[in-house]
Amino acid sequence: MKLAVLSDLHANHPALEAVFADLPNTIDNEIYLGDFVGLMGFPRETVIAAREHADFAVKGNHDVAVLERKEGHVNSQALSEFECEQTWAALDAEHRDWIAGLQPYAELPDFGLLLAHAKPTPEAAIGISPRNAGVEKGGFTQVAASVDTITFDYVMLGHTHEQAVLDCSRFGNNVTVLNPGSIGQPMGEANYAVVDLCDDSVDLRTVEYDVDPVISRLEDAGVPMTWW
């Protein structure tokens, strides 16, 4: 069985479309690790596409902040307001309810998978606290030591935008920790991963795409400042 693992879309539909075009035709299931919404200008298109494609999904800190708390989640008040206003204007109740119905943490024991947006516990999975920066690759061995390696073969995390994978069996814990990277940000390159459960392999993939439609959409929407 082959899985496509996608995370941190951040409302970047052109990037997501580039990933769809790159997906091998042998993919059996698509897994999404949260942050469907964000600053990149295409919240409606992104959520609709992800909902149609997702076989399993968790939500992220931007999803909770914007759609449940009605506040942006950026280190700029102006951009936070822009993120919140643009997302609420674009999404109808059906799409908001779909994301709200997701959890930030999920266990799929039949597949040997543990999914979380930020950290692999129900309490810290969402990553909305300013102190919760997620798990960088340097912390993967600690993650592996903390999970049930009888039940789980893979721990899949997002949030940091750092594409990385580590087979922790050589450190005494028979689990692989994976972050597929971010699709939505930074602009220009969309990162994701393909996991083959049959041969226990992980392919980290990067797709380049045209950023002009994203920039045009943001400028047309009156983005208050640039960061690209």
Automatic annotation (TrEMBL):
Highest rank taxon of the organism: Archaea
Record-linked InterPro entries: Ap4A_hydrolase (IPR050126), Calcineurin-like_PHP_lpxH (IPR024654), Metallo-depent_PP-like (IPR029052), Pesterase_MJ0912 (IPR011152)
Protein's UniProt name: Phosphodiesterase, MJ0936 family
Organism field: Halalkaliarchaeum desulfuricum
Pfam family, one: Metallophos_2
A single cellular component GO annotation: cytoplasm
A molecular function GO annotation: phosphatase activity
Domain Calcineurin-like phosphoesterase: 1-199
